[in-house]
Amino acid sequence: MIYQVLLVAYLIVALLLIGFVLIQQGKGADMGASFGAGGSNTVFGSSGSGNFMTRATGILATAFFVISLLLGNITARQEKAPDEWENLEVPVTQQAAPADTDVPAVPVEDNTGDTPN
């Protein structure tokens, strides 16, 4: 149950993180404005505390990392079902065909390449 909740939360956090990263304006976007009329701005913007978008992106990135670790830990501890291809020495049990079929049985021909005389 917790695994499914974490998977849904992981998907939501991933989509929000992608959205916040795409919405943000890059630091280099202010460079063109600084050479024009906005000469009072610095080339890469102010280096003050981050605004809402920067903080939200950081929180979402941290949540993404933590949920990734939790999902990896839960997945590693799960008991795995035995694989069919793991032990090929065990013979496969043959199932008998049902007796009342609509298709008649076809005799098996000898396909060795020898022609009868």
Automatic annotation (TrEMBL):
Give its localization. Answer: Cell membrane
InterPro entries of this UniProt entry? SecG
Q: Which residues form a coiled coil?
A: none
| Composition bias type Low complexity, residue spans | 96-110
Give TM segment ranges.
Answer: 52-71
The way it spans or sits in the membrane comes to:
Multi-pass membrane protein
Sorted keywords for this record are: Cell membrane, Membrane, Protein transport, Translocation, Transmembrane, Transmembrane helix, Transport
Entry superkingdom:
Bacteria
Per its UniProt record, what PANTHER family does this chain match? PROTEIN-EXPORT MEMBRANE PROTEIN SECG
Task: Quote the protein name from its UniProt record.
Answer: Protein-export membrane protein SecG
Q: Which organism is it from?
A: Alteromonas oceani
- What gene does this protein come from? secG
